[in-house]
Amino acid sequence: MATPADVPGDDARKAATGEKATGVRDVKSAARTVELLELLAARQNRPARLRELSEALGMPRSSCYALLRTLVKYGWVRTDASGTMYGIGIRALLAGTTYLDTDPYVRLAKPALDALGERLDETFHFGRLAGGDVVYLVTRASSQYLRPHSRVGRRLPAYSTALGKALLAELDGPELDEHLPEQLTPLTEHTFTDRAALLRDLAEVRERGYAIDRQENSLGLHCFSLPLRYASPAADAISCSVPLARLTPAREAEIVGAMRAARDTIEQGAVSIGLVGSGGM
Protein backbone atom coordinates (compact mmCIF):
# COMPACT_ATOMS: atom_id res chain seq x y z
CA MET A 1 0.00 0.00 0.00
CA ALA A 2 1.30 3.42 -0.89
CA THR A 3 2.42 5.75 1.85
CA PRO A 4 0.86 9.23 2.13
CA ALA A 5 3.87 10.71 0.32
CA ASP A 6 3.16 8.51 -2.69
CA VAL A 7 -0.36 9.53 -3.58
CA PRO A 8 -1.82 12.67 -5.17
CA GLY A 9 -3.74 14.82 -2.69
CA ASP A 10 -1.08 15.04 0.02
CA ASP A 11 1.45 17.71 1.00
CA ALA A 12 4.10 16.23 -1.30
CA ARG A 13 1.82 16.59 -4.31
CA LYS A 14 0.93 20.13 -3.26
CA ALA A 15 4.58 21.06 -3.19
CA ALA A 16 5.11 19.50 -6.63
CA THR A 17 2.10 21.15 -8.26
CA GLY A 18 2.23 24.64 -6.81
CA GLU A 19 -0.54 24.32 -4.26
CA LYS A 20 -0.23 25.86 -0.84
CA ALA A 21 2.16 24.15 1.54
CA THR A 22 2.36 24.79 5.25
CA GLY A 23 5.17 25.19 7.74
CA VAL A 24 7.96 25.78 5.19
CA ARG A 25 9.59 29.17 4.57
CA ASP A 26 10.66 29.97 1.01
CA VAL A 27 14.36 30.14 0.19
CA LYS A 28 14.49 33.40 -1.76
CA SER A 29 17.09 32.36 -4.35
CA ALA A 30 15.28 29.08 -5.02
CA ALA A 31 11.93 30.86 -5.29
CA ARG A 32 13.41 33.34 -7.76
CA THR A 33 14.81 30.51 -9.87
CA VAL A 34 11.45 28.74 -10.00
CA GLU A 35 9.62 31.98 -10.83
CA LEU A 36 12.02 32.69 -13.69
CA LEU A 37 11.74 29.17 -15.16
CA GLU A 38 7.94 29.24 -14.90
CA LEU A 39 7.83 32.64 -16.61
CA LEU A 40 9.98 31.39 -19.50
CA ALA A 41 7.92 28.19 -19.78
CA ALA A 42 4.67 30.17 -19.89
CA ARG A 43 6.00 32.19 -22.85
CA GLN A 44 6.38 28.94 -24.83
CA ASN A 45 8.03 29.85 -28.16
CA ARG A 46 8.41 33.57 -27.41
CA PRO A 47 11.95 34.24 -26.14
CA ALA A 48 12.34 37.21 -23.79
CA ARG A 49 14.92 39.93 -23.27
CA LEU A 50 16.59 40.58 -19.93
CA ARG A 51 14.61 43.77 -19.42
CA GLU A 52 11.27 41.99 -19.93
CA LEU A 53 12.16 39.28 -17.44
CA SER A 54 13.53 41.58 -14.76
CA GLU A 55 10.47 43.83 -14.98
CA ALA A 56 8.02 40.93 -14.94
CA LEU A 57 9.67 39.48 -11.83
CA GLY A 58 10.35 42.79 -10.11
CA MET A 59 14.02 41.80 -9.91
CA PRO A 60 17.07 44.06 -10.32
CA ARG A 61 18.47 43.65 -13.81
CA SER A 62 21.91 42.68 -12.53
CA SER A 63 20.47 39.93 -10.30
CA CYS A 64 18.26 38.65 -13.11
CA TYR A 65 21.22 38.55 -15.50
CA ALA A 66 23.38 36.62 -13.02
CA LEU A 67 20.58 34.10 -12.48
CA LEU A 68 20.01 33.71 -16.21
CA ARG A 69 23.70 33.11 -16.93
CA THR A 70 23.84 30.45 -14.22
CA LEU A 71 20.77 28.69 -15.65
CA VAL A 72 22.19 28.92 -19.18
CA LYS A 73 25.42 27.31 -17.95
CA TYR A 74 23.51 24.32 -16.58
CA GLY A 75 21.09 23.98 -19.50
CA TRP A 76 17.87 25.10 -17.80
CA VAL A 77 17.74 28.25 -19.95
CA ARG A 78 18.89 28.69 -23.54
CA THR A 79 19.94 31.87 -25.31
CA ASP A 80 20.39 32.94 -28.93
CA ALA A 81 23.68 33.66 -30.71
CA SER A 82 23.58 37.29 -29.60
CA GLY A 83 23.12 36.30 -25.95
CA THR A 84 20.22 38.74 -25.56
CA MET A 85 17.14 36.50 -25.92
CA TYR A 86 16.25 33.79 -23.42
CA GLY A 87 13.97 30.76 -23.47
CA ILE A 88 13.42 27.54 -21.54
CA GLY A 89 16.29 25.04 -21.87
CA ILE A 90 16.62 21.35 -22.60
CA ARG A 91 17.17 20.41 -18.95
CA ALA A 92 13.57 21.36 -18.27
CA LEU A 93 12.47 18.85 -20.90
CA LEU A 94 14.64 16.14 -19.37
CA ALA A 95 13.19 16.82 -15.91
CA GLY A 96 9.65 16.76 -17.28
CA THR A 97 10.28 13.50 -19.12
CA THR A 98 11.58 11.93 -15.92
CA TYR A 99 8.44 13.04 -14.10
CA LEU A 100 6.25 11.33 -16.70
CA ASP A 101 8.40 8.21 -16.88
CA THR A 102 8.33 7.67 -13.11
CA ASP A 103 4.72 8.62 -12.34
CA PRO A 104 2.79 5.38 -11.68
CA TYR A 105 -0.59 6.94 -12.47
CA VAL A 106 0.62 8.00 -15.91
CA ARG A 107 1.70 4.41 -16.54
CA LEU A 108 -1.78 3.21 -15.58
CA ALA A 109 -3.56 5.80 -17.71
CA LYS A 110 -1.64 5.34 -20.97
CA PRO A 111 -2.91 1.85 -21.92
CA ALA A 112 -6.47 2.78 -20.91
CA LEU A 113 -6.40 5.87 -23.14
CA ASP A 114 -4.83 3.87 -25.97
CA ALA A 115 -7.68 1.37 -25.74
CA LEU A 116 -10.26 4.18 -25.77
CA GLY A 117 -8.60 5.73 -28.81
CA GLU A 118 -8.52 2.44 -30.68
CA ARG A 119 -12.19 1.85 -29.98
CA LEU A 120 -13.63 5.34 -30.54
CA ASP A 121 -10.95 7.24 -32.51
CA GLU A 122 -11.44 10.46 -30.55
CA THR A 123 -8.82 12.45 -28.64
CA PHE A 124 -8.38 11.41 -25.01
CA HIS A 125 -6.43 13.07 -22.22
CA PHE A 126 -5.18 12.35 -18.70
CA GLY A 127 -4.58 15.46 -16.59
CA ARG A 128 -3.74 16.58 -13.07
CA LEU A 129 -4.93 19.53 -11.02
CA ALA A 130 -2.04 21.90 -10.22
CA GLY A 131 -3.11 24.96 -8.29
CA GLY A 132 -5.64 26.81 -10.42
CA ASP A 133 -4.70 24.93 -13.58
CA VAL A 134 -4.95 21.46 -15.02
CA VAL A 135 -1.81 19.98 -16.61
CA TYR A 136 -2.10 17.48 -19.46
CA LEU A 137 0.15 14.47 -18.77
CA VAL A 138 -1.06 12.00 -21.43
CA THR A 139 -2.71 12.68 -24.79
CA ARG A 140 -3.97 10.06 -27.22
CA ALA A 141 -4.89 11.92 -30.42
CA SER A 142 -7.63 11.04 -32.88
CA SER A 143 -6.64 10.14 -36.42
CA GLN A 144 -9.60 12.17 -37.71
CA TYR A 145 -8.38 15.62 -36.70
CA LEU A 146 -5.28 17.27 -35.25
CA ARG A 147 -5.24 19.87 -32.50
CA PRO A 148 -1.88 21.67 -32.45
CA HIS A 149 -2.25 22.55 -28.75
CA SER A 150 -3.14 18.99 -27.70
CA ARG A 151 0.21 18.13 -26.19
CA VAL A 152 1.71 16.77 -23.03
CA GLY A 153 2.68 19.54 -20.63
CA ARG A 154 -0.08 21.90 -21.74
CA ARG A 155 -1.41 23.93 -18.80
CA LEU A 156 -4.90 25.47 -18.88
CA PRO A 157 -7.18 27.12 -16.32
CA ALA A 158 -9.13 24.41 -14.52
CA TYR A 159 -12.41 26.35 -14.70
CA SER A 160 -12.35 26.38 -18.53
CA THR A 161 -11.80 22.66 -19.18
CA ALA A 162 -13.77 19.48 -18.63
CA LEU A 163 -10.73 17.91 -16.95
CA GLY A 164 -10.46 20.81 -14.54
CA LYS A 165 -14.16 21.04 -13.80
CA ALA A 166 -14.36 17.30 -13.07
CA LEU A 167 -11.70 17.85 -10.39
CA LEU A 168 -13.04 21.16 -9.09
CA ALA A 169 -16.42 19.49 -8.57
CA GLU A 170 -14.71 17.15 -6.08
CA LEU A 171 -13.93 20.16 -3.87
CA ASP A 172 -16.02 22.56 -1.81
CA GLY A 173 -15.64 25.65 0.35
CA PRO A 174 -12.08 26.84 1.10
CA GLU A 175 -10.57 23.89 -0.78
CA LEU A 176 -12.37 24.94 -3.95
CA ASP A 177 -11.50 28.61 -3.42
CA GLU A 178 -7.78 27.72 -3.41
CA HIS A 179 -8.09 26.51 -7.01
CA LEU A 180 -10.14 29.39 -8.43
CA PRO A 181 -8.72 32.79 -9.39
CA GLU A 182 -10.47 35.95 -8.28
CA GLN A 183 -11.26 36.75 -11.90
CA LEU A 184 -12.35 34.12 -14.44
CA THR A 185 -10.71 35.19 -17.69
CA PRO A 186 -12.51 33.93 -20.82
CA LEU A 187 -10.69 31.71 -23.32
CA THR A 188 -13.71 31.72 -25.64
CA GLU A 189 -17.09 33.44 -25.66
CA HIS A 190 -18.48 30.35 -23.89
CA THR A 191 -16.08 30.31 -20.92
CA PHE A 192 -17.67 30.87 -17.52
CA THR A 193 -16.72 34.32 -16.27
CA ASP A 194 -19.33 34.54 -13.52
CA ARG A 195 -18.36 32.65 -10.37
CA ALA A 196 -21.95 31.87 -9.37
CA ALA A 197 -22.65 30.39 -12.81
CA LEU A 198 -19.50 28.27 -12.58
CA LEU A 199 -20.52 26.98 -9.15
CA ARG A 200 -23.93 26.01 -10.54
CA ASP A 201 -22.20 24.14 -13.34
CA LEU A 202 -19.99 22.29 -10.83
CA ALA A 203 -23.12 21.29 -8.90
CA GLU A 204 -24.50 19.84 -12.15
CA VAL A 205 -21.23 17.95 -12.65
CA ARG A 206 -21.67 16.30 -9.25
CA GLU A 207 -25.26 15.35 -10.04
CA ARG A 208 -24.50 14.15 -13.58
CA GLY A 209 -21.34 12.27 -12.63
CA TYR A 210 -19.12 13.77 -15.33
CA ALA A 211 -18.03 17.23 -16.50
CA ILE A 212 -18.78 18.85 -19.85
CA ASP A 213 -16.82 21.63 -21.52
CA ARG A 214 -19.14 23.23 -24.06
CA GLN A 215 -16.68 25.15 -26.25
CA GLU A 216 -15.39 26.84 -23.09
CA ASN A 217 -11.77 26.17 -23.97
CA SER A 218 -11.79 25.60 -27.75
CA LEU A 219 -14.44 26.64 -30.26
CA GLY A 220 -16.00 23.75 -32.15
CA LEU A 221 -15.27 21.16 -29.46
CA HIS A 222 -17.16 19.61 -26.59
CA CYS A 223 -15.21 17.68 -23.96
CA PHE A 224 -16.30 15.15 -21.35
CA SER A 225 -14.35 14.22 -18.23
CA LEU A 226 -14.45 11.86 -15.25
CA PRO A 227 -12.37 12.14 -12.06
CA LEU A 228 -10.14 9.25 -11.00
CA ARG A 229 -10.88 8.54 -7.35
CA TYR A 230 -7.81 6.62 -6.23
CA ALA A 231 -7.11 9.60 -3.96
CA SER A 232 -9.42 11.86 -2.01
CA PRO A 233 -9.98 14.48 -3.17
CA ALA A 234 -9.32 13.35 -6.72
CA ALA A 235 -6.33 15.07 -8.35
CA ASP A 236 -6.37 13.27 -11.73
CA ALA A 237 -9.01 12.88 -14.42
CA ILE A 238 -9.52 11.56 -17.95
CA SER A 239 -11.31 13.40 -20.74
CA CYS A 240 -12.42 13.12 -24.35
CA SER A 241 -12.57 15.96 -26.92
CA VAL A 242 -15.14 15.66 -29.72
CA PRO A 243 -15.82 18.03 -32.67
CA LEU A 244 -19.39 19.29 -32.59
CA ALA A 245 -19.80 18.30 -36.24
CA ARG A 246 -20.07 14.63 -35.30
CA LEU A 247 -21.42 14.82 -31.74
CA THR A 248 -24.87 13.40 -31.08
CA PRO A 249 -26.59 12.38 -27.83
CA ALA A 250 -25.98 8.75 -28.74
CA ARG A 251 -22.29 9.41 -29.35
CA GLU A 252 -21.99 11.25 -26.02
CA ALA A 253 -23.56 8.30 -24.21
CA GLU A 254 -21.20 5.89 -25.99
CA ILE A 255 -18.12 7.94 -25.09
CA VAL A 256 -19.08 8.48 -21.46
CA GLY A 257 -19.93 4.79 -21.04
CA ALA A 258 -16.56 3.76 -22.45
CA MET A 259 -14.78 6.30 -20.24
CA ARG A 260 -16.54 4.98 -17.14
CA ALA A 261 -15.27 1.50 -17.96
CA ALA A 262 -11.76 2.90 -18.52
CA ARG A 263 -11.93 4.73 -15.18
CA ASP A 264 -12.83 1.46 -13.45
CA THR A 265 -9.84 -0.21 -15.10
CA ILE A 266 -7.45 2.55 -14.00
CA GLU A 267 -8.77 2.66 -10.45
CA GLN A 268 -8.66 -1.12 -10.12
CA GLY A 269 -5.11 -1.04 -11.42
CA ALA A 270 -4.21 1.49 -8.73
CA VAL A 271 -5.69 -0.81 -6.08
CA SER A 272 -3.86 -3.86 -7.40
CA ILE A 273 -0.43 -2.21 -7.11
CA GLY A 274 -1.12 -0.43 -3.83
CA LEU A 275 -1.53 3.13 -5.11
CA VAL A 276 -4.75 4.07 -3.34
CA GLY A 277 -4.39 6.62 -0.54
CA SER A 278 -6.35 6.83 2.69
CA GLY A 279 -9.88 8.02 1.94
CA GLY A 280 -9.59 7.32 -1.77
CA MET A 281 -12.36 5.77 -3.86
TrEMBL record:
Transcription listed as a keyword = yes
Question: Signal peptide location in the record?
Answer: none
Q: Where are the transmembrane segments?
A: none
Q: Where is this region: Disordered?
A: 1-22
Residue ranges occupied by any HTH iclR-type domain in the UniProt entry: 27-90
**Compositionally skewed regions (Basic and acidic residues) per UniProt:** 10-22
* Keywords noted in UniProt: DNA-binding, Transcription, Transcription regulation
Q: Which PROSITE patterns match?
A: HTH_ICLR, ICLR_ED
Stored SUPFAM superfamilies: GAF domain-like, Winged helix' DNA-binding domain
Family annotation (InterPro entries): GAF-like_dom_sf, HTH_MetabolicPath_Reg, Tscrpt_reg_IclR_C, Tscrpt_reg_IclR_N, WH-like_DNA-bd_sf, WH_DNA-bd_sf
Which residue numbers delimit the IclR-ED domain? 91-272
Q: Which domain of life is it from?
A: Bacteria
Q: Which PANTHER family match?
A: HELIX-TURN-HELIX TRANSCRIPTIONAL REGULATOR, ICLR FAMILY (PTHR30136), HTH-TYPE TRANSCRIPTIONAL REPRESSOR ALLR (PTHR30136:SF24)
What is the protein named?
A: IclR family transcriptional regulator
